[in-house]
Amino acid sequence: MRHDHLITSKQLSREDIETVLDRAAEIDADPSAVADRHANTLLGLLFFEPSTRTKMSFETAMKRLGGDVVDMGSVESSSVKKGETLADTVRVIEGYADALVLRHPKQGAATMASEYVDVPLLNAGDGAGHHPTQTLLDLYTIRENAGLDDLTVGIMGDLKYGRTVHSLAHALTNFDVRQHFVSPESLQLPREVVYDLHQADDGAGIREHDSLEEVLPSLDVLYVTRIQRERFPDEQEYQKVAGEYQIGPEDLEAASDDLTIMHPLPRVDEIAPAIDETDHAAYFDQAHNGVPVRMALLDLFLSDDGAGGALGGDGDE
Amino acid sequence: MSDDHEHHDGNDDHELRVSKIRDGTVIDHVRGGQALNVLAILGIDGSEGEELSVGMNVPSDRLGRKDIVKVEGRELSQDEVDVLSLIAPDATINIVRDYEVIEKHRVEPPEIVEGVLSCPNTGCITTGDEPVTSRFEVLEDGVRCSYCGTIAREELASLIET
Ligand SMILES: [Zn+2]
């Protein structure tokens, strides 16, 4: 089927993912080849929640393809403040732009918004829901560092509210990947995410843990996310778990020399700065990979043949 | 053996509690205590002058205790009947015309329910001020919001939109 919009990583087949990653690799190798490819194209940026990095990454990607962006600006200064609905906002901005990027604090916002527009809409994060473009750059980084098959991945931190985790875990079920989820009990994966993983993979490749120790030696990739202080009812509860899920150089003695450590950033204290200079650290590359991956996505969604032609003519949805 | 009483003569105990209807729908074998939720899910509250009879916790061979709802002058559509399955999976629907049951069917779960349940996730886009109709995919043992993906298994009746 055609993908008219990119809402969740669940809509992406393995073939779709490989199409995007291959295109990103081509662009990464020779960005000048696509420098004018989408001249006169405008991307609408609708960020109902601040996210400077994701927004700049999309902005950079569009400009590197020769296009430009129109930006709704901050919610504070827009008509949203006056009570305009998201449904109205996207219908208005659709008239200005060739594609839309939406970040919104409510879960399901991208799904709803996509029902109102004909131009491609890319979900750049909807509440605790999904963040598929982050997932694609995560997969790109994993593929570059460790390949995407016969892989053991640990995903650690706030798995409950971490939308990047929800999207990544689902996408990984397309590959031969064993996934270990490491979190405090109160921040385990939501049951609907577990439900989906079981649906996608019979749950065969999925294990949940409360400590990293026992799984660390087997990991090829460790994906760390931030445990947010504000998720905890009191500071003491937070302090109890926080230390458990921080990783320092001394922890890596038990790890494989080839372990790749990732983080969607921003980090606080989950990964000690001493790790930055080691070969394990992939998180800054990961952030930089956002541009070629988003260029690839925009290229696929904005090309004449549409994303349908480009993203797997017969995906599974 | 059957506790279907529509055709019984005379002094059936149930008849005293829930009178016969002339034209309309009898929803039988509703799980005990769910009758008012059945009305809620159908959006029937009597405010439009519908003549309603509700029997609650009456004895039943099949269910032990059951509820019965009779709606005079209204035949339920298949959509309405399907939605009932979420809270009354054992229900039987009797369409009555001129005191005769002319159609009888069991409820069957629909694939999708729209505009009936509200999402229990307060972070869901459907719970704000957007012009969006709630939509749930029906799972084997619950429902799932088509927007945020939240799964609700128990207490579906409490999610009925009012
Ligand atoms: Zn929802």
TrEMBL record, chain A:
It catalyses: carbamoyl phosphate + L-aspartate = N-carbamoyl-L-aspartate + phosphate + H(+). Residues 5-144 form the Aspartate/ornithine carbamoyltransferase carbamoyl-P binding domain. One of its GO terms (biological process) is amino acid metabolic process. Its EC number is 2.1.3.2. The keyword Transferase applies. SUPFAM superfamilies: Aspartate/ornithine carbamoyltransferase. Keywords: Pyrimidine biosynthesis, Transferase. L-aspartate binds at residues 82, 163, 226. The keyword Nucleus does not apply. It is an enzyme of class 2 (transferase). It comes from the Archaea. Signal peptide: none annotated. One of its GO terms (molecular function) is amino acid binding. Carbamoyl phosphate binds at residues 53-54, 103, 131, 134, 265-266. Residues 150-300 form the Aspartate/ornithine carbamoyltransferase Asp/Orn-binding domain. GO terms for cellular component: cytosol. Pathway: Pyrimidine metabolism; UMP biosynthesis via de novo pathway; (S)-dihydroorotate from bicarbonate: step 2/3. Catalyzes the condensation of carbamoyl phosphate and aspartate to form carbamoyl aspartate and inorganic phosphate, the committed step in the de novo pyrimidine nucleotide biosynthesis pathway. Heterooligomer of catalytic and regulatory chains. NCBIfam families: asp_carb_tr, PRK00856.1. Belongs to the aspartate/ornithine carbamoyltransferase superfamily. ATCase family. This is Aspartate carbamoyltransferase. It comes from Haloterrigena alkaliphila.
TrEMBL record, chain B:
Keywords: Metal-binding, Pyrimidine biosynthesis, Zinc. Binds 1 zinc ion per subunit. Residues 16-108 form the Aspartate carbamoyltransferase regulatory subunit N-terminal domain. GO terms for molecular function: metal ion binding. The keyword Zinc applies. It holds the Pfam family PyrI. GO terms for cellular component: aspartate carbamoyltransferase complex. GO terms for biological process: 'de novo' pyrimidine nucleobase biosynthetic process; pyrimidine nucleotide biosynthetic process. It comes from the Archaea. Zn(2+) binds at residues 119, 124, 145, 148. Residues 113-155 form the Aspartate carbamoyltransferase regulatory subunit C-terminal domain. Its cofactor is Zn(2+). Involved in allosteric regulation of aspartate carbamoyltransferase. Belongs to the PyrI family. Contains catalytic and regulatory chains. This is Aspartate carbamoyltransferase regulatory chain. The gene is pyrI.
